[in-house]
Design a protein that fits this description.
This protein has helices at 2-58, 317-324, 346-358, 376-398, 422-428; strands spanning 110-115, 129-131, 135-138, 147-150, 154-158, 167-176, 187-193, 205-211, 226-230, 233-238, 253-261, 264-269, 272-277, 289-294, 303-312, 326-329, 364-369, 405-411, 431-435. The chain contains 5 helices and 19 strands. Strands 1, 3, 4, 6, 11, 12, 13 and 15 form an 8-stranded antiparallel β-sheet that branches. The N and C termini lie far apart (106 Å). The protein is α+β, with helices and mostly antiparallel strands.
């Protein structure tokens, strides 16, 4: 009897152990499946994240950024980069939209020429340009797009610019390497009358604007940072310890804006007006050329230019909007493939806001337009977001009532000019204001 009882207890114990072992095994298997499923879910989520990122960032509404999406290489096969130490340089800290509150530059209404060098291969000298020195297309680490680098002493000129009207605006991005030597040459943009396109030695009639990004603390008694010449005569010189709008320390990138009205010239670097001179241009001279010039400099000290825009005529915003009922501008600038307004758009936005403030009964529709680069559906959505960004700027920065403004976007569907050229694309990237 005792033996039978012992056998029964042993059997029950064995069954219990077997059941428990089976239960543990099942739990282990279930836990393994759960962990595997979590890993699979994370992988799927990551894939969706990358796909969404590709939709948001990879589909270009204003063209892919050369040197980024297209992976530009030098002729030797290496990535074409300049000044690796410059990756964090550019617009200075604090150079926000609000910093441009005194920026009164108004871009010309009709684009005559536009150049971003996107059609030129890295390592080449750009087509339709001429030089008596040297230059090549590069990319700059931390800066988007293609840039024309000055590779030696001399001038670089776009041959497609053959006339400078009595009322024009010229804009371009200027970049230099951090720590540019105080003792090396400045950068000049020369607005000249030239009869011989191959003559870079002399300009009988010209206006020269010289800029030097030196740090004056290295030589407090040193030469001026910015000068203007009429022919060879210096007519204006700024002597300052350091102009923070462009220097070789923390603001190595400048958006240079030049505005001619008959004999008058205004020159801006980023948000700062450098000069407003009433008699810089001579009334009897037909200016017809732009030359970007650099004198000799030590190796490692260089200048780079890009995003050149020549336009004619200051927009008569009040007349066009109030009388004609429609005003279109290419002077509101956005970051590439984005709806963030660049701060140098302040002048034209203030002009529009002043008209709306003086005429409180006027209501307008804000319509965004893009060029044809990239996906059509994305461009449509981008144009709508840009129109909304303009509305937010007018309400937030200038106090215009939002109820007076409605927004829409047309994407690439209503081009003002052909998208086959850089100039045409620049004309199509515009914002329209329609009285309603």
């Amino acid at each position: 009897m005792k033996a039978a009882k012992f056998t029964l207890l042993l059997l029950i114990g064995l069954i219990s152990v077997n059941v428990q072992a089976q239960s543990i095994g099942d739990r282990v298997l279930q836990k393994a499946k759960q962990r595997a499923n979590r890993k699979i879910d994370k992988t799927i989520d990551k894939g969706f994240d990358e796909a969404e990122k590709g939709i948001d960032e990879g589909v270009s509404g204003e063209g892919e950024q050369p040197g980024e999406a297209q992976g530009d290489k030098t002729p030797g096969g290496e990535p074409a980069k300049e000044n690796p130490s410059a990756s964090d340089q550019g617009t200075a800290p604090g150079a926000s939209f609000a910093a441009y509150s005194k920026f009164d530059f108004i871009p010309g209404e009709k684009v005559l020429a536009a150049e971003d060098f996107s059609q030129d291969a890295v390592g080449d000298f750009p087509a339709k340009w001429n030089t008596n020195g040297g230059g090549e297309i590069v990319t700059i680490e931390g800066q988007s797009g293609h840039w024309l680098a000055f590779t030696s002493k001399g001038g670089l000129t776009p041959e497609y610019i053959t006339s400078l009207p009595e009322n024009f605006t010229l804009e371009f991005d200027l970049f230099t390497n951090p720590g540019y030597s105080f003792y090396d040459a400045g950068f000049r943009v020369i607005l000249a009358e030239r009869s011989d396109p191959n003559n870079f030695a002399r300009w009988a009639n010209c206006v020269q604007v010289e800029m030097h990004p030196k740090d004056a603390t290295s030589n407090p008694t040193g030469r001026s940072e910015y000068r203007v010449f009429q022919n060879s005569n210096e007519i204006m010189m700024n002597r300052r310890d350091e102009l923070t709008c462009f220097n070789n320390k923390d603001r190595t990138h400048a958006r240079v804006s030049i505005w001619r009205q008959n004999q008058r010239i205004r020159v801006y670097a980023n948000e700062t007006k450098l000069w407003d001179l009433p008699k810089a241009f001579m009334s009897n001279v037909k200016y017809n050329a732009v030359i970007f010039d650099k004198a000799a400099a030590k190796e490692g000290n260089n200048y780079y230019i890009s995003n050149i825009r020549l336009a004619v005529g200051a927009p008569d915003t009040r007349n066009k909007l109030l009388t004609e009922g429609r005003f279109s501008t290419t002077g509101i600038y956005f970051n590439t493939n984005a709806a963030e307004i660049k701060p140098e758009s302040y002048g034209i936005l203030k002009e529009i806001a002043d008209v709306l403030t003086a005429n409180p009964e006027v209501k307008v529709s804000i319509i965004g337009h893009t060029d044809s680069d990239g996906d059509e559906a994305h461009n449509l959505e981008l144009s709508k977001r840009r129109a909304e960004a303009v509305k937010q700027a007018l309400t937030g920065s200038f106090g215009i009532q939002g109820s007076r403004l409605e927004t829409d976007g047309k994407g690439e569907s209503q081009p003002a000019e052909s998208n086959d050229t850089q100039t045409g694309k620049a004309a199509n990237r515009r914002v329209e204001f329609i009285k309603r």
